[in-house]
Amino acid sequence: MDCYTANWNPLGDSAFYRKYELYSMDWDLKEELRDCLVAAAPYGGPIALLRNPWRKEKPASARPVLEIYSASGVPLASLLWKSGPVVSLGWSAEEELLCVQEDGVVLVYGLHGDFRRHFSMGNEVLQNRVLDARIFHTEFGSGVAILTGAHRFTLSANVGDLKLRRMPEVPGLQSAPSCWTTVCQDRVAHILLAVGPDLYLLDHAACSAVTPPGLAPGVSSFLQMAVSFTYRHLALFTDTGYIWMGTASLKEKLCEFNCNIRAPPKQMVWCSRPRSKERAVVVAWERRLMVDSYLVPELDGVRIFSRSTHEFLHEVPVASEEIFKIASMAPGALLLEAQKEYEKESQKADEYLREIQELGQLPQAVQQCIEAAGHEHWPDMQKSLLRAASFGKCFLDRFPPDSFVRMCRDLRVLNAVRDYHIGIPLTYSQYKQLTIQVLLDRLVLRRLYPLAIQICEYLRLPEVQGVSRILAHWACYKVQQKDVSDEDVARAINQKLGDTPGVSYSDIAARAYGCGRTELAIKLLEYEPRSGEQVPLLLKMKRSKLALSKAIESGDTDLVFTVLLHLKNELNRGDFFMTLRNQPMALSLYRQFCKHQELETLKDLYNQDDNHQELGSFHIRASYAAEERIEGRVAALQTAADAFYKAKNEFAAKATEDQMRLLRLQRRLEDELGGRFLDLSLHDTVTTLILSGQNKRAEQLARDFRIPDKRLWWLKLTALADLEDWEELEKFSKSKKSPIGYLPFVEICMKQHNKYEAKKYASRVGPEQKVKALLLVGDVAQAADVAIEHRNEAEMSLVLSHCTGATDGATADKIQRARAQAQKK
């Protein structure tokens, strides 16, 4: 135990700090760190170095090189810097490198040195140049703050959604502030700067002077300031050698310390862990405390790297302190000792175990060992603590195993990513804060696809969140390998992905198209089962005809319409129509569309196809839909008739000519008789004439249009009954023998509730319909006599069905007797 705590250093009354080596750095640096712009990403992120050739005291002899390393010093990228002078480097939350140039342009690079994009911080920054810059992180994303040569600040809180804010001017500021930083309060980014002995806080609306409470007297300048990882605390280094520590709101002082060094420090960062009551800062001076090193603040400590080593300094967690501090009698310490004695087969194991059980602290001891294992960096110590926890669990009846199993899984993942070749030295606290999904994203960014997939399978993550997502990223990277043929890449991707759920081949194809590999994108789309995903990308790639084929294969009419409208705008009219001729389904759908939206285009389609039948139908519809003048309508009908003749449809042509004659006749009738005749059917025209008393005209019209006698008699019968002109109806019935018989006369009269007139015609009805006519006028007895006389079983049954109760009882008996006699014979 004594040996294990040898690197523990007490700070204050109750806290210990320890520093352990993460990696031995084997990077081959050609420059000293002090001569470079350095940026290291938090959460065990990568390190970027750019030799600063723009320093006045050391003129450049060649273009600088931008180098990116993992936290273990493994090279990730190296590129010759060909752009303008760089003022500051920084990493975004997505591990993109932001390079702030002197002209206010920010260049964004990927982890492997691939250029992503650039943006400008505004014209004012361009005109006044950049003196200094800070990259900071908020809950909204990564931001950039700029100090210009005019001593004004410009800020964007989220580079992903760039919105520039020009901060208020500081009164009387004639030179650059001695130090400044960004502070996030109430979800808003502020600038805190020092001008001599004064501090100013800039927000979007005003510049406010602020004073740290309890500051030692005699301060004439602030030389350095540092805000904590969570933006809750602030440290100020003064020219008197004092370090003031308090809340970032400057409302509460935590402590003040005299370090007896008045020289401005090279770096000052906070070193504290979540939920700890201890607050500490780490201060580095040039060549005084640490030789050519760089500090990286983390959530729960500080990473310190130099040319040779990469170390981690942090406060010893409570569980570890309880177990490992000298002469500790904490339950976790006793359980660890008991397990070690058990391995030695010593009876002391039982004594330690009994002592813990007598105090009822065995569950607490197991939990302490599990928690301490999470905070240990070295696998051997993790195993020792987990063995102790497992040993203690054996003597507990109902200890839930979830925490133990979860810790074993988490540590296995952490040990895998901490490996030198991976180089992500996450602590347990950082891992929990970062989440497994973000860690997988960072492995994907490093192109460590096999490890990411192994972790997903080990943790049994859902495929859509785990393996499928990673395979999709791998495929998107694969399509960028331009030294491999399109066929080989497409085949390899399909063999690897297959029908993996959650993988979209269209997204991969879109990436291939973005890389200029159109043919590869088309091959990949062949594996996409959803036509709705294929077609939009094919249209974007200007493969409209292929998109049309895919849309037709899908059977989705909406998708076909989408492609047709795109083709219509893309091709000239002739090519568009020729394309449609080769796709009958598309042509049919487009015709349906034109019928409702573009009638002239529909006519052109029929003309091009020599479809005279449909062209004739089109002109007929057009004659009624568009034209109001009779001459225009007749002309349209004449065109339709000509088209029908060309289509060899004699019936349609004759019918169209008859309609033209009818229209002309209806116009003449309107002129001579008044009233409305236009657009009535032939039958309605005849009926209207009869209702108007124009019987001769109606008969002439019937002759002209060869209306059959039966139909004419029906029309006249119905019209005269509607007029209730019974006298004219009687004359009409006697004019000649009725071609429709006289039963219709009876039916029409009864429909008009005129039994008297109906009886007139009932007597004239032929024998085969006599019974039905008599029943219509209500003469059941006579109908029975006729049915008996005809000896017709169906007629007798019909009469019986009309007999009701006592009134027709005698008639019913009469029919029954007639039936009986007929059966005897």
UniProtKB/TrEMBL annotation:
Query: What InterPro entries does this protein's entry cite?
Result: VPS16, Vps16_C, Vps16_C_sf, Vps16_N
Q: Name one Pfam family in it.
A: Vps16_C
Family matches, as Gene3D superfamilies: Vps16, C-terminal region
Concerning its family, UniProt says: Belongs to the VPS16 family.
An example GO biological process term is: endosomal transport
For this UniProt record, give its keywords in alphabetical order, as a comma-separated list.
Coiled coil, Endosome, Lysosome, Membrane, Protein transport, Transport
Purpose of the protein: Plays a role in vesicle-mediated protein trafficking to lysosomal compartments including the endocytic membrane transport and autophagic pathways. Believed to act as a core component of the putative HOPS and CORVET endosomal tethering complexes.
Topology within the bilayer: Peripheral membrane protein
Q: Outline the extent of the Vps16 N-terminal domain.
A: 4-406
What is the name of this protein? Vacuolar protein sorting-associated protein 16 homolog
